[in-house]
Amino acid sequence: MVMKKTGLASLEQVLDGSFSNINHPPQAPAAHPAPADGTLLRLAGLLDADIQATNQAIIARMHSEVELIPALAAHIVAAGGKRLRPLLTLASARLCGYGEGARHIKLAACVEFIHTATLLHDDVVDESLLRRGLASANAVFGNKASVLVGDFLFSRAFELMVEDGSLEVLRILSHASATIAEGEVLQLSTQNDLSTDETRYLRVISGKTAALFAAACEVGAVVAGRDAAICAALASYGQNLGMAFQLVDDALDYAAEEAELGKSVGDDFREGKLTYPIIIAHQKGDEAERAFWTRTIEANDQTEADLAKALDIITRHHAIEATIARAELFAEAAQQALQSLPASPLRSIMAEIADYAVTRRH
Amino acid sequence: MVMKKTGLASLEQVLDGSFSNINHPPQAPAAHPAPADGTLLRLAGLLDADIQATNQAIIARMHSEVELIPALAAHIVAAGGKRLRPLLTLASARLCGYGEGARHIKLAACVEFIHTATLLHDDVVDESLLRRGLASANAVFGNKASVLVGDFLFSRAFELMVEDGSLEVLRILSHASATIAEGEVLQLSTQNDLSTDETRYLRVISGKTAALFAAACEVGAVVAGRDAAICAALASYGQNLGMAFQLVDDALDYAAEEAELGKSVGDDFREGKLTYPIIIAHQKGDEAERAFWTRTIEANDQTEADLAKALDIITRHHAIEATIARAELFAEAAQQALQSLPASPLRSIMAEIADYAVTRRH
Q: Is residue A248 a contact partner of residue A326, using CB atoms and an 8 Å limit?
């Protein structure tokens, strides 16, 4: 196998690093941290011991005697990211009163493995060269290794769930995994298809993103032994938070500063993805604008200057604001779902996370 | 999404077809069915009702509202193949005295879904254009859809296991899935690497092929409620059968008639895969021959005429015979493992399946 040489993070470097890149972003200058990031920091502060334990579990359980597996996994784990999903499992478990034991740690690692597996496969599918400001795994190790290591991490996640021994947790996460794949396939079907409407788009992001947010939160309530109503409330919090998060992701793809985003701006446009900003701009557009979208998105016939023009049209129709407004509705629903739990500092921060999802800049 | 148009099998066509292509090969003229195929036919005859039920379960459970999923899944399911793995689950369950109930049906479908998912990902990894004599799913639907539908089928397999409700089955199949991925990644690492020896090669095929054969048999014994010794005996039967099967696969890649094989001869050579025939030929080769392997396999510098020359060298060193002889040892071990079970017509046919694995021509 021809492997592209590059500076790889070793397992030790990953171990040295913090759980997430909130404190130590591995990517270059972090410009101005947005104020919203303070919320994530405070949540991480409350859960510090759990986070360290989850980090250890992730490193320990991505091990394999086949060296390429931990090498590639370390590359994507070292790239950090917000680690929002495992953080949600930890937070939900604690919010639901989970006390002694380390089941939430193991399941947080599961959730991160499932997420990492989908990222690896996504980057192959999208032919992405950047992930979180670093070269993507497929760019470094090739598509083949990314597909197969994704499969390994996915299988390893199920091995961890089996060790945990709860069929209910297995049910939630196997169903979420199938739903993620369905959302990704649906997204592929809507690519370059301007007939994609808001309903279909929301179905895509409900599958590809919100399903795992929901499952991550729900399993936290399950390990805490809470009843069905509380489990459903946490699932609803996660589901709505995930919707808000993905809508904002799709807005940032057009609106962010590239250095802050850690990936290229306009990727969705170049790939002909039918995300909320384009759906709105296309809907509100005049004939000439619709012809522009037909050429660039449907016929996939783009020139260098087209991204700027797309941004112009999107700005003219306030499509970014509309996307953020839609995200705010989901964020409010997420906060509403938390009302079934007693007030606590942790609940407040989890509610603020929904605000963070909408106000973040990367 | 741009989808390449082609004649796709509908779900109905799949339903009309038999469980496997033993009776109705979907690919063109089946030339002369090898006598060994009679064994598979007799096994299928003994398990006819189970096979029909498994077929129905496979069709029913690969359904999704996202249309591309059943369309792509039907394409690969319609292509048939021997369906050896689910057949092994059914046979093992019955051999172990499983009576009432349909757990073995559901788990046979699981096993086939896991296998299908790995095939979809394999074909992406290998950039294969043919699978079982038909255009591969990636050639028809593209790599992206193949990766994602593979993920869906894999997740669906775990959903089915959760419905079944046995943590022991989940343990066996999640471990097998991780082992398959490890084997595939190891294979990728050995590609183009002439230092790969027999031990490493056997580790690759133990992971990528034998692990699922072993798990397929073991879960049959588990649903029948047999003790650990019998479960281990069935796992050993499957493991050794899988080793024999893969060795012969690797021999056929150089020795088969293309029309019978249903895929191109010499694919492994073109991909620089270090399979048993090449390892033997390289080991026994003189200096000039080693230089040939270094150029064609290690440097991946091949001309049109090189496959014929590779076949010449392989023939000169009886490397195909050596591969088959190695397979025979595994087949004997498989038959030995069956001795812990009482003699029965089914046990005899399962023993013959080990002979079939070695004598088959495709």
A: no
Q: What is the DSSP string of B221-278?
A: HHHTT--HHHHHHHHHHHHHHHHHHHHHHHHHHHHS-HHHHTS-TTHHHHTT---HHH
Please name which of B300, B265, B278, B4 lies closest in space to residue B142, comparing C-alpha atoms.
Answer: B4
Q: Are A174 and B162 in contact (CB under 8 A)?
A: yes
Q: Give A87's pLDDT tier (boundaries 50, 70, 90).
A: very high
Cβ distance of A177 and B151 shorter than 8 Å = yes
The answer to whether residue B56 neighbours chain A at the CB level (below 8 Å) is no
ipTM of the complex: 0.89
Q: How many angstroms separate the CA atoms of A15 and A11, rounded? A: 6
Establish if A44 belongs to a structural domain: yes
Phi and psi (nearest 5°) for A318? 50, 40
B240, B236, B222, B248: which is closest to B89 by C-alpha?
A: B222
User: pLDDT confidence of A12, banded at 50, 70, 90?
Assistant: very low
Strand, coil or helix: A220? helix
Q: Does residue A85 or residue A260 have the better pLDDT?
A: A85
B313 within a domain of the structure (yes/no)? yes
**Can you give the pTM of this predicted structure?**
0.89
Cβ distance of B125 and A144 shorter than 8 Å: yes
Interface contacts A/B by beta carbons within 8 Å:
152
pLDDT at residue B217 tops 80: yes
CA distance A71 to A3: 12
Domain total of chain A = 1
Encode pLDDT of A146-187 as tens digits. Answer: 999 999 999 999 999 999 999 999 999 999 999 999 999 999
Contact B147 A159 (CB under 8 A): no
Interface contact flag, B158 A149, Cβ < 8 Å: no
Cα–Cα dist A32/A57, whole Å: 32
Which residue do the tokens 């369906």 mark?
Answer: B83
Q: Span A19-24, mean pLDDT?
A: 41
Contacts of A67 in chain B (CB under 8 A): 189
Looking at residues B209-213, what average pLDDT do you find? 98
CATH number of the CATH domain containing A342: 1.10.600.10
Assess B259–A contact: CB distance below 8 Å, yes or no: no
Taking alpha carbons only, the member of A199, A202, A236, A200 closest to residue A216 is A236
Residues B151-187: pLDDT tens digits? 999 999 999 999 999 999 999 999 999 999 999 999 9
Distance of alpha carbon A44 from alpha carbon A32, whole angstroms: 20
For chain B, counts of helices (H) and of strands (E): 19, 2
Query: Does a structural domain hold residue A235?
Result: yes
* Helix-then-strand count for chain A, H and E: 19, 2
Please, which residues bridge with residue B130 across strands? B135
Q: Is residue A215 part of a domain?
A: yes
